[in-house]
Amino acid sequence: MRYFTVDGMSSGTGVRDTLDGGFVDLDKIGVSAGLKRDIRVWLLEYEAEFFAGFRNLKTLAALDEKGLQIAQRLSKEIPGSKTEYYSDGKSEKIYFKL
User: Fold this and answer.
1) Which of 53, 26, 23, 54 is nearest to 41 (CA)?
2) What pairs with residue 93 in β-bridges?
3) Between the CA of residue 77 and those of 22, 48, 58, 83, 96, what are the distances in Å?
4) Are 80 and 2 in contact (CB under 8 A)?
5) Taking CA atoms, which of 6, 12, 20, 39 is between 20 and 30 Å from 46?
6) Whole-model pTM?
7) Segment 9-46, tens digit of pLDDT
8) Is the separation of the CB atoms in 96 and 68 below 8 Å?
9) Closest of 78, 93, 66, 76 to residue 5, by C-alpha
10) Pairing assessment for the beta strands 3-7 and 15-17 based on DSSP bridges
């Protein structure tokens, strides 16, 4: 079983190995090109909001919603994996159901 955390931390890849803690190479975990693209776009948007100081709570909420959707897609694309979502802007794990 693989354990992942979708995480918008700047300087990361958007997906961490939950157990080892390091960021994973998106090209090596077996997800679709579309999901990799969406993760990279979301990560750039999240990074921009980070550098703005997470001042806009509506923007942060929208980014976290996108991140949750990415986490759900990641769970579906890698059968047998467990995926969670961490909001850097709120500094907390956000739970979701598949």
Assistant:
1) 26
2) 86
3) 20, 27, 29, 11, 16
4) yes
5) 20
6) 0.94
7) 988 999 999 999 899 999 999 999 999 999 999 999 99
8) yes
9) 93
10) antiparallel
Provide CB contacts within 8 A for 40, sequence distance 6+.
14, 26
User: What is the number of helices (H) and of strands (E) in the chain?
Assistant: 2, 4
Positive or negative CA dihedral for 28, 34, 39, 44?
positive
The structure tokens listed for 92 are 């907390």
Angle CA(40)–CA(80)–CA(17) in degrees, nearest 5? 45
CA distance 29 to 6: 13
> What's the half-sphere exposure (Cβ side, CA atoms, 13 Å) at 70?
32
Residues in the chain: 98
